[in-house]
Design goal:
- With 279 residues, the chain is mostly helical.
- The protein has one domain.
- Helix content is 81%, strand content 0%.
- The chain contains 12 helices and no strands.
- Helix 3 packs across helix 4 and helix 6 runs antiparallel to helix 9.
- The radius of gyration is 20 Å and the shape is globular.
């Protein structure tokens, strides 16, 4: 239920999500409750309980999950010094998604415990704010023209890659522009699926007998139950992105590759510092 975007470099480079660093990670113990508070006003006792649950989640994440991120980055660090195939990039992405699934599994108990503590009024407020957010996303994304959609995709690709490899060459920009123009428009499909998921959640949030296990089951089955069109569009676009990323990496100059390796090393070091502080 909570959008925690601290997973690692790959989400920045290849999946277009918010970037992570040591400072941001170390603020999650208050950022997560702050994010939840955007959707529902918690009592002091509820906030204190949430803080404890978040700290337990972060202890698990520091103790177990960050080492997986370092391992993924080690693979990337080695791979980018050689010829990169689309399958190589897919392997990086798959590894990150597996980590994301582990995080979701560990977040669910926190979400369910909070759901048990909310009053009927608070739950109604939470559901209303979820739907308000859906309306905001639909207005923001569906109002775009096809040209604006392509431009946004292109800027996302160039901005995220440029942050880690430096100024892109004209050939690299053209390759990413081709990818942006080739992708199928996905926002309406994503928002339709998100709306269907909110309808499912709204029913679960009525908290009828057995809702806790039903929520766990719903999350476990969500990927399998997404519409065929959603999966087709996602697979198609992901393949295009993976191929364009592989092509750009293979076009890196020595200077760009050196910058990328430095950025990867710094992120790995940030993770090692976080792990050491937990120990």
């Amino acid at each position: 239920m909570y959008r925690i975007q601290f997973l690692l470099l790959l989400f920045c480079l290849f999946l277009g999500t918010a970037c992570s660093n040591k400072f941001f990670y170390n603020q999650l113990d208050w950022l997560i409750p702050w994010y939840v508070d955007d959707y529902v006003d918690l009592t002091l006792v509820q906030k204190e309980n949430l803080d404890k649950q978040v700290e337990m989640l972060l202890q698990w994440h520091r103790g177990e999950e960050l080492s997986h991120y370092i391992a993924i980055l080690n693979h990337i660090e080695k791979d980018v010094t050689e010829y990169v195939t689309v399958e190589t990039v897919k392997n990086w992405s798959d590894a990150v998604l597996i980590s994301a699934e582990r995080v979701q599994v560990n977040i669910l108990p926190l979400a369910i415990e909070l759901g048990e503590e909310l009053t009927e009024e608070q739950m109604a407020e939470f559901v209303k704010n979820l739907w308000d957010r859906q309306a905001e996303l639909e207005e923001e994304y569906l109002s775009r023209s096809n040209e604006e959609y392509i431009k946004d995709n292109y800027e996302s690709l160039t901005d995220n890659l440029g942050k880690y490899v430096g100024r892109l060459s004209d050939a690299q920009k053209e390759r990413l522009n081709k990818a942006a123009n080739t992708m199928q428009r996905f926002d309406h499909v994503w928002l339709e699926d998100r709306r269907s998921w909110l309808e499912k959640l709204e029913g679960l949030m009525k908290r009828e007998q057995g809702w806790q296990q039903a929520t766990i089951d719903a999350f476990a089955l969500r990927g399998k139950q997404q519409p065929k069109r959603f999966k087709q569009y996602l697979s198609y676009n992901t393949t295009i992105i993976h191929q364009s990323i592989a092509d750009v990496i293979n076009q890196l100059s020595d200077k760009q590759r050196g910058k990328l390796l430095v950025e990867i090393a710094e992120i790995k070091n940030d993770f090692r510092v976080i792990i050491a502080s937990a120990e």
